[in-house]
Amino acid sequence: MTSATDRLAIRARDLTKSYGDAVALDHFSLDVWEGGVVTLLGPSGCGKTTALRVIAGFETGGGSIEIHGRKVLDNDVFVPPEKRKVGMVFQDYALFPHMTVLANVAYGLPKGDRTRRVGVVLELVGLTGLEDRLPNELSGGQQQRVALARALAPEPEVILLDEPFSNLDASLRDRVRRELRVILTEARTTAVFVTHDQEEALATSDIVAVMKDGKILQADTPAQLYANPTDPWVAEFLGDADVIEAVAHNGRVDTPVGGFDTDLEGKVSVIIRPENLEISLGETPNAVVAGSEFFGHDQLVTLALHGGTRVRARLGPRPVYKTGESCRVRATDARIFARSP
Amino acid sequence: MAAGIALLPGLIPPISLFFQVIGRGTALAVPLTRLLQLFVNTLLLTVAVTVTAVVIGLATAWATTRVDLPLRRGWMTLAALPLVVPSYVAALSLIAATGPGGILLEIPTPYGFVGAWLVLSIFTAPMVHLTVIPGLGAIDPATEEAATGLGAGRWKVFRTVTLPQLRPALVSAALLVGLYTVSDFGAVSLLRYDTFTRAIYALYRGQIDRRPSATLSLILMALAILILLLERRTRGRSALYSKRPRRARPLIKLSGWRMGLSLSLIGSYALIALGIPVFVMAVSVGQGLDAGQPLGATLGAEAARSVGVAVVAALITALAAFPVAMVTTRRPGRLSGWVESAVWGTYSLPHITVGVAAVGFALQWARPLYQTLIFMLIIYVGMFLPQTVGAVQDSMRRASPDLEDASRGLGRGPLRTLLNITLPLAAPGLIAGGALVFLSAMKELAATILLRPNGFETLAIRIWSSTSEGYLTRASAAGLVLLVVSIVPLFLVMNRDLGD
User: CA-to-CA distance for B349 and B189, rounded, in angstroms?
Assistant: First the structure.
């Protein structure tokens, strides 16, 4: 019988790290299950890349890390990066410019079985035939896949990817992202991504961990995270959202766009996503259309509520609302958080 | 640790000089009026040379980057080439070209200020040329186009948009020329203009008491460090070039007489700075051969010594530069800041002062080293280290530290990573830096005069001593050999500096 912790690929506890006065990691803890794909998501400077580098062993820090049950960082333990069996894909790929694709991919392999294994990995990433090219003779997408192949070649227990798509064109990014997901599943490798692109995080991961100021605020499945944020900052950071400030009393909070049940009492923030707003004409108006952006498959209508607060509603392409038109706005759903005084 | 040892040869001379002067009583060893006179002379020459060199260098840089000249890249390289001509060779050409029986003009040789000013201005202009070209390249064409769109003419655009953006590069170039001028010994000594360097040498040779020459050396060192500090300050600010990629800039099309004028100006610069020295020295050698003067007797041995010393100096310096460059680019922090300052501090020291200081150090504290080849090479490493460190840092900065992390992450230890990744990446810088040291060591005169073992004649020494004794033919023969030997490493260096 195996206990749950045996199947943890990464177990990081209370990681701390600072550069001078700047705190990069503030008691950062993370569990990654074997075979899982986890994304660290946060604004730039939130410490997500530092977390990755500490896990890989490129930087030291306080706290402890276990990889597949083996201690690699603790008070008196520091396993150097070359002994951690962790693959890393760097933001700008860090391909060795003086080596061919073949030499790059073979770099982490023991002598002997190299050529066969390189062939296998290059086939996995779809680059067979480019073995003798130098990195500067490859397109951005190809370089990205060489970086991935190089990291996968030694069959690492965990692979870490630092903003792996940020240097790709938008058109290429979606395709490479899907392919990467397939490759990782085929290779059955545990992966930790770092990104500041929420769409990318939601689309690629089993678990998304939202980071701010060196800490994880919430780690959950993409759907849970979007629907049930446990933190107002997470709610606003992830997807579009507008905030209406209100006061809760006796289990109810009333706002211009409707009333909601709540356990809270006193000042609250009511956070509403644009897709949870409805507009109707002909009823007693409570808002004026302040502007709209048309996207073809839908439109985003900005509404000025009586009283001044602005909210955005994502609606179907029809009907078209005219600026200045009066209408009634109603929210079908909202998240309510206590507001610190 | 290794970086610390590599720094020692550069730091010993200035520190020991300080003790040589201060340790022996505080009375000023040189009369104040003499000091003032030297100061004024040096300052006058420095200002005149700097202004002239900036005008020439800015013109050649602008014309070869912005104007649609035929063979533009060729002119760009040609305008940089005079850098290879040492100041004493230039002075030799001027002396051989003029005076009674002069090869080009039978006018009195312009000894003193005029000669020194001419020679140093013409041959330091390439420093400005090479510094300004990247500066011009870094200016976003859109800023100039915007000015044109607002109705400014070409001259107004240059004055109000180009020049202000170029200022950091220009100031940096001007200070480099200034530093070179206060440090120059070859031209001022042969053309007999009384500056600090010439006075230091005269005092050193003429007096048994080393205190006066040491005192002047210390003052000159302080002056040089001051100039260098100013240069570092402007450089720090000029590093903020925007990095975003831009469209290529359309070249200015000149027509008719304007193109003719541009071409003839840059052509005459190349002719004066390169053609005349080579021509004059060749004619001088020819005249000597006709007159049956023996030339080759010692020339081969001198060339062999110069090349040998230069090769060894290049190898040792490259070896020493690697750890220093590693520390300063890969482990930024207070320590590497100090290392960086120490390296750049030694770069500014005039070679004649390093020579005086090193001789004093050897006589006082390390007698067995006095006038040995080893000691001379050690001091060379100290003087030339900054050039190599700069070149190696360049290649290391271009290669992301992620490459080393990537290697570690793929299971290679620190040593293997150093050998497989870091060294190959630093190689272009090591080669360019080594070539630079080779060039500098070949040309080195002021410190070599003081430090060389008895009877150790190099090409540089031969050119200088034969010129000052009036044996222009012998000097010219050595000068031509020196230029020829310098061409190959020069192209190694220039490829890096002018690369796209």
Answer: 18
pLDDT score at B198: 95
Q: In chain A, how long is the greatest CA-to-CA distance?
A: 79
Lowest mean pLDDT among A29-38, A272-281, B245-254, B348-357: B245-254
Which residues make Cβ contacts (< 8 Å) with residue B180, sequence separation at least 6?
B120, B124, B127
Q: Which residue is associated with the tokens 């006193």?
A: A266
Interface test with A, best of B402, B423, B431 (most A CBs within 10 A): B402
Residue with tokens 């796209």: B500
Q: How many CB atoms lie within 10 A of CB A25?
A: 26
How many angstroms separate the CA atoms of A64 and A11, rounded?
8
β-pair type (A62-67, A86-89): unpaired
Burial code (b: 16+ CB inside 10 Å, e: under 16) for A44-64 equals eebbbbbbbbbbbbbbebbbb
Whether the Cβ atoms of residue A96 and residue A107 lie closer than 8 Å to each other: yes
Q: 10 Å Cβ neighbour count for A68?
A: 16
| Cα atoms found within 13 Å of the Cα of residue B334, Cβ hemisphere only | 1
pLDDT band (50, 70, 90) for residue A3 = very low
Rg (CA), chain B: 23
CB B204 within 8 A of CB B210: yes
Domains in chain B with CATH codes? 2-240+251-498 (1.10.3720.10)
Closest by Cβ to A86, choosing from B403, B409, B420? B409
- Gap between the Cα atoms of B215 and A159, Å rounded: 64
Q: pLDDT tier at A1 (50, 70, 90 boundaries)?
A: very low
Per the CB < 8 A criterion, the answer to whether A101 and A146 are in contact is yes
Cα gap B75→B79, rounded to integer Å: 6
Number of inter-chain CB pairs under 8 A, A vs B: 63
CB contact under 8 A, B409 and A96: no
Residue A264 backbone dihedrals phi, psi, to 5 degrees: -80, 165
**Above 80 in pLDDT, residue B296?**
no
What is the predicted pLDDT for the residue at B23?
A: 65
List, for residues B188-223, the tens digit of each pLDDT value: 999 999 999 999 999 998 887 888 888 889 899 989
**Is B405 within 8 Å of chain A by CB?**
yes
What is the number of alpha carbons within 13 Å of residue B248 lying toward its C-beta?
5
Residues of B in contact with A82 (CB under 8 A): 408-413
Return mean pLDDT, chain B: 86
- Please, are residues B216 and B22 in contact by the beta-carbon 8 Å criterion? no
Residue numbers in A near B421 (CB within 8 A): 96
Please count the other Cβ atoms lying within 10 Å of the Cβ belonging to residue B291: 8
CA–CA separation, A3 and B297 (whole Å): 90
Q: Does B400 touch chain A (CB under 8 A)?
A: yes
Residue with the bigger pLDDT between A78 and B151: it is A78
CA-to-CA distance for A276 and A332, rounded, in angstroms? 5
pLDDT (tens digit per residue) in A161-174: 998 888 778 777 88
Helices assigned H by DSSP within A197-309: 198-204, 222-227, 232-237
d(CA B376, CA B384): 12
Interface membership of B114 toward A (CB under 8 Å): no
Cα B29 to Cα B210: distance, rounded to the nearest angstrom: 10
pLDDT over threshold 90, residue B112: yes
pTM of the predicted structure, to 2 decimals: 0.77
Buried b (16+ CB within 10 A) or exposed e, B459-483: bbbbbbbbbbeeebbbbbbbbbbbb
Residue by residue, what is the 3-state secondary structure of A279-306? EECCCCCCEEEEEEEECCCCEEEEEEEC
Confidence of residue B244 (pLDDT cuts 50, 70, 90): very low
| Interface predicted TM-score (ipTM) of this complex, two decimals | 0.74
